[in-house]
Amino acid sequence: xxxxxxxxxTIGDEILFGQITDTNTQWMGVELSLIGVxxxxxxxxxxxxxxILRVLKEAQERADIVLITGGLGPTKDDITKxxxxxxxxxxxxxxxxxxxxxxTFFRKRGxxxxxxxxxxxxxxxxxxxxxxxxxTAPGMWFDHxxxxxxxxxxxxxxxxxxxxxxxxxxxxxxFTLPVIHHRVIRTVxxxxxxxxxxxxxxEDALPPHIRLAYLPxxxxxxxxxxxxxxSLAALKEETxxxxxxxxxxxxxxxxxxxxxxxxxxxxxxxxASGQTISAAESCTGGYVAHLLTKIPGSSAYFQGGxxxxxxEIKEQTLGVRPETLAKYGAVSEETIREMAEGIRTRFHTWFxxxxxxxxxxxxxxxxxPVGTVWIAVSxxxxxxxxxxxxxxxxxxxxxxxxxxLLNLLRKVLLQEE
Length: 417
Fold this sequence. Notes:
Maf protein, Competence-induced_CinA, 16 helices, 17 strands, elongated, Molybdenum Cofactor Biosythetic Enzyme, Chain A, CinA-like protein, Alpha-Beta Plaits, 6-stranded mixed β-sheet, 3 domains, CinA-like_C, 5-stranded mixed β-sheet, alpha/beta
């Protein structure tokens, strides 16, 4: 079966200037993949006629489907419709259905249709009108020399509505599409290269119609299996068997699958345990508490926290002994142990978490360079500590310290530590 390809083009100076974040292309890529269309390129172009014409020509040479967002407003800087007319060798004319829709849109809001907004109903003569029930800029569909072009408004709410209600169903009718199935294994606490070494033999043995992608982020790596075929049920069964085959090799690092987020998994484990938790944070400055409480229902397990940046707070609030700080320093196994046990006993929780380290960019010494961090998880039965040796970037060190601490908590909850 022939692979059906798509290219997504966003139009607007505001995207290139960084004044707005382009979320459209990411969403469209996901939705196209779900119906079996392979997105091969995404590009952004400013409100410049020559550049738009050039990118349209290049896209037509590469893709079966070209999706365009942006530049459909009624003001003079929105030139997409005029440029499309030039590209397709046609002119603009008021479309009666589009005019009625725009007029109705304004009348429902108690406003008169102005001359400038009336121009929203002006469409290229060879375009198929696609009604937009969420705004005034209609979609436009062109069949041109074997390629389908679709022009959509750039407002995400409107674009998503048009794609969901109109464009995706039409594409499924227009093209014979394969079935694509994604299965994602989510890992934490192992780097991409180390993970690749562990699963090399398994990866090499994957069948041709199933591809593996490594999707790394700070402290985590997603393994995405993408299977292409004609039967969704068969693809699901095949990819699930592949997952089961590799799990014995990477199980200690796997925290979830598909859309499961790390914080959600931790929250579910805490709720299932029926236990409470508190956190004493130094170098992470409250980030651990933020991750624990960003999930709805976190009040069922999270009691509170202390940002014990100063040694005086470690002593007065957490009960860290002055002699411990004097002898070993704030960034030490001895101090982190007392911090975790102190927050647990003072907040009357089952789990006590703690972080203390040198996030940077300064403050390091030859013995304790920037990126040296101690973390701890304490229960009434035991206290586990770990030393982290991270890099020189402050935000990265804060994020990784929190992730590695919560991963240690996850292992304790699963009785893997």
